[in-house]
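DUF4136 domain-containing protein (Lysobacter arenosi), 183 aa
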Amino acid sequence: MGIAMVSGCATTPAVFTDYDPGVSFGQYRTYRWAQKPEGYSPLEQQRLVAAVDAKLRERGWTQSTEAQIDIVANVATETRYSLDSFYSGPAWGGWGWGGGWGGWGCCGGWGWGASYGSTTTRAYTYGTLVLDMFDAQSKRAIWRGIAQGTVPSDPQRQTTNMLASVDKMFATFPPGAPIAQAQ
Protein backbone atom coordinates (compact mmCIF):
# COMPACT_ATOMS: atom_id res chain seq x y z
CA MET A 1 0.00 0.00 0.00
CA GLY A 2 1.20 3.50 -0.75
CA ILE A 3 1.77 6.03 1.93
CA ALA A 4 0.43 9.04 0.13
CA MET A 5 -2.85 9.80 1.75
CA VAL A 6 -5.63 12.04 0.62
CA SER A 7 -8.75 13.11 2.49
CA GLY A 8 -11.46 12.90 -0.10
CA CYS A 9 -10.68 12.87 -3.79
CA ALA A 10 -9.35 16.37 -4.40
CA THR A 11 -7.55 17.40 -1.24
CA THR A 12 -4.22 16.67 0.34
CA PRO A 13 -3.85 14.68 3.55
CA ALA A 14 -4.40 16.15 6.97
CA VAL A 15 -0.97 17.03 8.37
CA PHE A 16 -0.03 17.76 11.98
CA THR A 17 3.28 18.49 13.65
CA ASP A 18 4.35 18.61 17.27
CA TYR A 19 7.65 19.33 18.98
CA ASP A 20 9.31 19.74 22.35
CA PRO A 21 9.35 23.51 22.99
CA GLY A 22 12.27 23.09 25.39
CA VAL A 23 14.58 21.96 22.60
CA SER A 24 16.80 24.40 20.70
CA PHE A 25 16.71 23.06 17.14
CA GLY A 26 19.59 25.34 16.16
CA GLN A 27 22.02 22.93 17.84
CA TYR A 28 21.23 20.16 15.35
CA ARG A 29 22.81 19.83 11.91
CA THR A 30 23.16 16.06 11.25
CA TYR A 31 20.67 13.19 11.05
CA ARG A 32 20.38 9.55 10.07
CA TRP A 33 17.52 7.21 9.28
CA ALA A 34 17.18 4.91 12.29
CA GLN A 35 14.10 3.32 10.69
CA LYS A 36 12.74 3.80 7.20
CA PRO A 37 9.06 3.03 6.66
CA GLU A 38 8.34 -0.56 5.63
CA GLY A 39 5.44 -2.66 4.47
CA TYR A 40 4.54 -0.89 1.26
CA SER A 41 5.96 -0.08 -2.15
CA PRO A 42 9.77 0.20 -2.19
CA LEU A 43 9.39 2.98 -4.78
CA GLU A 44 7.18 4.99 -2.42
CA GLN A 45 9.69 4.40 0.38
CA GLN A 46 12.52 5.73 -1.80
CA ARG A 47 10.45 8.78 -2.74
CA LEU A 48 9.54 9.53 0.87
CA VAL A 49 13.14 9.25 2.08
CA ALA A 50 14.35 11.44 -0.81
CA ALA A 51 11.66 14.06 -0.07
CA VAL A 52 12.56 14.24 3.64
CA ASP A 53 16.29 14.30 2.80
CA ALA A 54 15.69 17.22 0.41
CA LYS A 55 13.72 19.20 3.02
CA LEU A 56 16.43 18.70 5.63
CA ARG A 57 19.18 19.66 3.15
CA GLU A 58 17.26 22.87 2.40
CA ARG A 59 17.54 23.66 6.11
CA GLY A 60 21.27 23.03 6.23
CA TRP A 61 21.13 19.54 7.72
CA THR A 62 23.30 16.68 6.40
CA GLN A 63 22.96 12.94 6.66
CA SER A 64 25.72 11.28 8.72
CA THR A 65 26.46 7.96 10.40
CA GLU A 66 27.50 9.96 13.51
CA ALA A 67 24.28 11.96 13.56
CA GLN A 68 22.74 14.16 16.22
CA ILE A 69 19.19 13.20 15.21
CA ASP A 70 17.63 9.78 14.57
CA ILE A 71 14.61 9.73 12.25
CA VAL A 72 12.06 6.95 12.62
CA ALA A 73 9.29 6.58 10.03
CA ASN A 74 6.20 4.40 10.40
CA VAL A 75 3.31 3.75 8.05
CA ALA A 76 0.03 2.12 8.99
CA THR A 77 -2.83 1.35 6.62
CA GLU A 78 -6.24 -0.14 7.15
CA THR A 79 -9.19 -0.99 4.98
CA ARG A 80 -12.24 1.08 5.82
CA TYR A 81 -15.74 0.85 4.42
CA SER A 82 -18.22 3.48 3.36
CA LEU A 83 -21.92 2.69 3.12
CA ASP A 84 -23.98 4.84 0.77
CA SER A 85 -27.75 4.31 1.00
CA PHE A 86 -30.38 5.60 -1.37
CA TYR A 87 -34.13 5.43 -0.80
CA SER A 88 -36.81 6.15 -3.37
CA GLY A 89 -40.58 6.34 -3.38
CA PRO A 90 -43.09 7.97 -1.05
CA ALA A 91 -42.56 5.49 1.82
CA TRP A 92 -44.61 6.59 4.83
CA GLY A 93 -46.95 9.39 3.91
CA GLY A 94 -48.40 12.13 6.03
CA TRP A 95 -51.97 12.86 7.02
CA GLY A 96 -54.32 12.82 4.05
CA TRP A 97 -57.32 11.38 2.27
CA GLY A 98 -57.75 7.83 1.15
CA GLY A 99 -57.86 4.32 2.48
CA GLY A 100 -54.88 4.93 4.64
CA TRP A 101 -53.00 2.67 6.92
CA GLY A 102 -54.81 1.04 9.77
CA GLY A 103 -58.24 1.26 8.15
CA TRP A 104 -58.97 4.89 8.86
CA GLY A 105 -61.32 5.08 5.91
CA CYS A 106 -62.20 8.14 3.84
CA CYS A 107 -61.64 10.76 6.47
CA GLY A 108 -57.88 10.76 6.30
CA GLY A 109 -55.09 9.12 8.21
CA TRP A 110 -51.55 7.99 7.82
CA GLY A 111 -50.85 6.59 4.38
CA TRP A 112 -48.12 4.44 2.99
CA GLY A 113 -46.68 3.78 -0.43
CA ALA A 114 -44.20 1.61 -2.17
CA SER A 115 -40.53 2.45 -1.77
CA TYR A 116 -37.22 0.79 -2.27
CA GLY A 117 -33.73 1.27 -1.02
CA SER A 118 -30.26 0.24 -2.03
CA THR A 119 -26.95 0.38 -0.24
CA THR A 120 -23.55 0.38 -1.88
CA THR A 121 -20.47 -0.64 0.08
CA ARG A 122 -17.18 0.93 -0.93
CA ALA A 123 -13.85 -0.28 0.48
CA TYR A 124 -10.94 2.15 0.63
CA THR A 125 -7.51 2.30 2.23
CA TYR A 126 -6.86 4.81 4.99
CA GLY A 127 -3.25 5.48 5.85
CA THR A 128 -1.15 7.25 8.44
CA LEU A 129 2.48 8.31 8.06
CA VAL A 130 4.39 9.23 11.23
CA LEU A 131 7.87 10.77 11.18
CA ASP A 132 9.58 11.03 14.56
CA MET A 133 12.87 12.71 15.39
CA PHE A 134 14.90 11.77 18.45
CA ASP A 135 18.02 13.30 19.93
CA ALA A 136 20.53 10.54 19.07
CA GLN A 137 22.45 10.91 22.33
CA SER A 138 19.64 11.24 24.89
CA LYS A 139 17.00 9.27 22.85
CA ARG A 140 14.54 12.04 23.76
CA ALA A 141 11.69 12.67 21.29
CA ILE A 142 11.96 16.20 19.91
CA TRP A 143 9.66 16.40 16.84
CA ARG A 144 6.78 14.53 15.20
CA GLY A 145 5.03 14.91 11.86
CA ILE A 146 1.82 13.05 11.01
CA ALA A 147 -0.05 12.80 7.69
CA GLN A 148 -3.28 10.85 7.40
CA GLY A 149 -6.09 10.30 4.98
CA THR A 150 -7.42 8.12 2.20
CA VAL A 151 -4.78 6.46 0.02
CA PRO A 152 -5.42 6.86 -3.72
CA SER A 153 -5.00 3.71 -5.78
CA ASP A 154 -3.10 5.55 -8.53
CA PRO A 155 0.68 5.53 -7.78
CA GLN A 156 1.16 8.96 -9.39
CA ARG A 157 -1.48 10.51 -7.10
CA GLN A 158 0.09 8.68 -4.15
CA THR A 159 3.43 10.33 -4.91
CA THR A 160 1.87 13.75 -5.46
CA ASN A 161 0.04 13.56 -2.14
CA MET A 162 3.08 12.21 -0.29
CA LEU A 163 5.18 15.13 -1.54
CA ALA A 164 2.46 17.58 -0.49
CA SER A 165 2.39 15.96 2.96
CA VAL A 166 6.17 16.29 3.39
CA ASP A 167 6.00 19.92 2.23
CA LYS A 168 3.36 20.68 4.87
CA MET A 169 5.25 18.83 7.60
CA PHE A 170 8.42 20.79 6.99
CA ALA A 171 6.83 24.17 6.18
CA THR A 172 7.75 25.54 9.62
CA PHE A 173 10.70 23.29 10.38
CA PRO A 174 12.78 23.68 12.43
CA PRO A 175 10.43 25.00 15.09
CA GLY A 176 11.36 28.46 16.33
CA ALA A 177 13.19 29.39 13.11
CA PRO A 178 11.96 32.25 10.94
CA ILE A 179 9.64 31.02 8.21
CA ALA A 180 11.26 31.17 4.78
CA GLN A 181 9.68 33.67 2.40
CA ALA A 182 8.76 32.60 -1.14
CA GLN A 183 10.90 34.31 -3.75
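Strands lie at 14-19, 30-35, 62-63, 69-88, 92-96, 109-112, 116-135, 141-151. Confidence is low (pLDDT under 50) at residues 1-10. ok done for today
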